[in-house]
């Protein structure tokens, strides 16, 4: 009877003790979070309560299960399982704590710095650093798990002896993956592209949404996601509209009749921009940039603080100027001029040349 009850008492006691310690720790973190609302550290640490409780439970069971006589026959298997769980939960806890500390440091930096370009750069670096830390901790945890098996410890010497050859073979086989990983680090610390930057790649305009060690995701204006290897950004040219300063200059073109009131259009452009909140008041202009037999090309130049606002300003100027021309100056809109073709004088009989001359000199009055 005692052999049946003792395992339940040991396991139940470990579970109860784990729950109590986890609850007490969570209460302390909650109070610290309420008292120090300026930092998110304590709230982020509360997210680690599951791996924290797993570490406590695995450690307690690992130290007490040997005291149960009924489990001594399975001592090796149970001990191995608890050791693996303990190593995995410790790795999970370390990653969670590191993420909380890094996220807190980033939040403080973002609040203290008003330069959005620097904030995005730090955000990119922090994200990639966390991915590197997670990868390293994961590899170390897996290696520690494997070394708990006697067979793996015995094979360790031979593995170390052949590590050089294996490293060369692995490097050749995974050269594209390694190239992407090094490119990801180069992007993070070379400040080439950052999370939140507006870029144009392969003719697609979008915003950088995610950067990892191997790939980069661009969210386009129509909510599509383009996933590209990070090595693309270190080997091919691309447009980064957020590089340096996000301020942008945009143009709007119209094809109009030669009689278009250009000076009045300049005044109207000024009124349109003053009523447009997206215009940053830096500059504007309107000039005739080209001419053709039937039309002229008029270009308006406008400015805005970033790529999103420049799009809004260009659309507003284009729509409101066309509406104003259609209402106030309809003659300025392009049209196709048609008239009867006038033959050359040598192709007309001589008695009609006088009539032709009068018709050419007075085409509007009909005098002849």
Report what the structure shows.
With 368 residues, this protein is of the alpha+beta class. Among the domains are: 2-112, no CATH class; 248-332, Alpha-Beta Plaits. The protein is built from 13 helices and eight strands. The chain has helices at residues 2-35, 41-45, 49-64, 75-112, 116-147, 150-154, 156-161, 163-173, 175-190, 232-235, 262-274, 307-328, 353-361, and strands spanning 198-201, 204-211, 215-220, 225-229, 239-240, 248-256, 279-291, 296-304. The chain has a five-stranded antiparallel sheet with strand order 4-3-2-1-5. A three-stranded antiparallel sheet has the order 6-8-7, with helices on one face. A hairpin with a 4-residue loop joins strand 3 (215-220) and strand 4. The protein starts with a helix and ends in a 7-residue tail after the last helix. Residues 356-368 have low confidence and may be disordered.
Question: What descriptors fit this protein?
Answer:
five-stranded antiparallel sheet, 8 strands, three-stranded antiparallel sheet, disordered C terminus, 368 residues, alpha+beta, Alpha-Beta Plaits
Which percent range describes the beta-strand content? 15-25%
Provide the residue-averaged pLDDT: 77
The total beta strand count reads: 8
Tell the overall outline.
elongated
Structural class: alpha+beta
Helix content: 55-70%
User: Could you give the order of strands across the largest sheet?
Assistant: 4-3-2-1-5
What's the total helix number? Answer: 13
> What is the first-to-last residue Cα distance?
132 Å
Our Rg estimate from Cα atoms comes to: 37 Å
Let me know the largest β-sheet: 5 strands, antiparallel
Order of helices and strands: HHHHHHHHHEEEEHEEHEEHH
Return residue spans where pLDDT drops below 50 for at least 5 consecutive residues: 356-368
